Amino acid sequence: MNHEFLPVMHSALRSGLLAAFCVAAAPGVSAADAPRAVPDTMAERVAACVACHGDQGRAASDGYYPRIAGKPEGYLYNQLVNFREGRRRNTTMSYLVANLPDAYLREIAHHFAAQNPPYPPPQPVAAGAAVLARGQVLASTGDPARKLPACASCHGSALTGVAPAVPGLLGLPRDYLNAQIGAWQNRARSTLAPDCMALIAARLSPADLGAVTAYLAAQAVPEHAGAAPASATPAKPPLECGSLASSGVTP
Fold first, then answer.
1. Which end of the chain is more exposed for a tag (fewer CB within 10 A), N or C?
2. Residue 137's pLDDT is what?
3. How many CB atoms within 10 Å of residue 227?
4. Could you tell me if 218 and 122 are in contact, meaning their C-beta atoms sit under 8 angstroms apart?
5. Secondary structure class of 35 (helix, strand, coil)
6. Are 53 and 68 in contact, with CB atoms under 8 Å apart?
7. Least confident of 32-41, 56-65, 103-112
């Protein structure tokens, strides 16, 4: 474990250490009553992460928090940086990473990318056959007339992601998918220019947004699913994406 990052542990941890010092120094308080020292282990570093994202970052298919286990390392790193730099907005996430350096964030991304717990079955989706059929078309073929590329053209033919920086879309709650595309539409979420997802989200009608998220959320994740290697998708992505060049990970 790299100890050089101890001075930048998030403020909650620093507060805990300060409280431990104060209690230990107080008259009449024994060492046994003082809070324990916090070891610099990966388990301690990611304790705040798993509080919301679940053990190993597995999350669940019926909640809002996304699964981060097994996501490409470059993608996870990019998102941590985006929260730190304000391109993604979430009060808790921004607070936790506000003072963490790039190398620290890479270690966290590497840890969760290496996790591979099983996926739960998808939750039932309240959508009719026509809606799901439209969603499948958008995910697998796209809509050239509206300049909408297929989800699969960037996120992999199995929709399970492409290393090192493109995430999978399966195994995520529909509410989460709706919220993230909506955040791009409302410019509450962004990434480095050129922001390909912002362009795609802007071209999605409300009906198409609902259709594609319903289809994605209804799909079972293939057994042993993982991000495809970059070599498995040699075709050039349909849109330029600034985040691909900033993953911090060599394919």
1. N
2. 98
3. 25
4. yes
5. coil
6. yes
7. 32-41
17: pLDDT strictly greater than 50: no
- Domain with 227 in it: what CATH number? 1.10.760.10
Answer whether residue 251 is part of any domain. no
| 66, 171 Cβ separation under 8 angstroms | no
User: Is 35 a member of any domain?
Assistant: no
- At 39, the amino acid letter reads P
Q: Is residue 192 part of a domain?
A: yes
pTM of structure: 0.81
Residue 12 counted as domain residue? no
Contact (Cβ atoms closer than 8 angstroms) between residue 98 and residue 106: no
Per the structure, the count of domains in the chain is: 1
The domain in which residue 107 lies consists of 41-246
CA distance 113 to 50: 14
Q: What are residue 162's DSSP bridge partners?
A: 166, 228
